[in-house]
Amino acid sequence: MQRKKIIRLAAFVIPAVAIIALAAVPALSSSQDAEQNGEVEVEALNPQPHATSGSCGVERWAVKTGTDADNAKITLQSTTPATVASLRALPKPANLPSANRISPTEDTVFQIHSTLTEYKLENDSDYHLVLDDGNGTTMIVEIPDPACTGASSPLLSSIQKARAEFNAKYTVTTSFKTTNVPVTVTGVGFFDFLHGQTGVAPNGIELHAILDVQFGGTTGGAVTVANPGPQTGTVGQPSNLAVPATDTAAGTLSYRATGLPPGLSITSATGLITGTPTTAGTTTVTVTATDSTGPSGSTTFTWAITGSGGGCTPAQLLGNPGFETGTAAPWTGTTSTVTNSPTEPPHSGTWDAWLDGKGTAHTDTLAQTVTLPTGCTGYTLGFWLHVDTAETSTTKAYDTLTAQLLDGSGTVLRTLGTYSNLTAAPGYAQKTFDLSAYAGKAVTVKFTGTEDYTQQSSFVLDDTTLNLT
Question: Where are the alpha helices (DSSP H) in 100-230?
Answer without folding.
Answer: 156-167
